[in-house]
Amino acid sequence: QPPPSCPLPPPGRLLRCLKGVAGGVRGLQCHPHRPLVASCGLDRFLRVHGLGDKRPQHKVYLKSRLNCLLLSSRQDWEAPEAPSPAADGDKDKDGDKEEDDADALWAAMEPVPPPAPPGRRPTKRKSSGL
Questions:
Q1: pTM of the predicted model as reported, rounded to 2 decimal places
Q2: Could you give the C-alpha distances from 67 to 3, 19, 24, 45, 129, in angstroms and in order?
Q3: What is the pLDDT of residues 96-108, one digit of tens each?
Q4: Domain assignments of the chain as residue spans, ordered by start
Q5: Where are the alpha helices (DSSP H) in 10-130?
Q6: Per the record, which residues fall in region Disordered (predicted)?
Q7: Triad 97, 103, 109: Cα angle to 5°
């Protein structure tokens, strides 16, 4: 049985408060199958709250500024995806040829000498201010 969907309050009406948020909330997204709400704010934290609980269940600092969220319905998003049947087949001969051409091109390039270290600059003399 699916969890209750996120109710949207009428504009200007407060439905619930999210604890632990500092600054403005930029994005708010409900999970499609679980009773979870994710929020991101100006403080660069991604918080995951339960629908029946005000306190954050998870909190992660992200280096970039967030302005929107996208939640997936995949159960195990950390697991690697199964390779496609086309990828399991023999490699394309054209792909091998392109790799050989690229390797040959890199081998034929001349190495670039490192730049010379900068020379010493003359020291400035203080003026007497007369």
A1: 0.47
A2: 26, 19, 11, 11, 56
A3: 788 888 888 888 9
A4: 19-72
A5: 85-88, 93-108
A6: 75-130
A7: 135
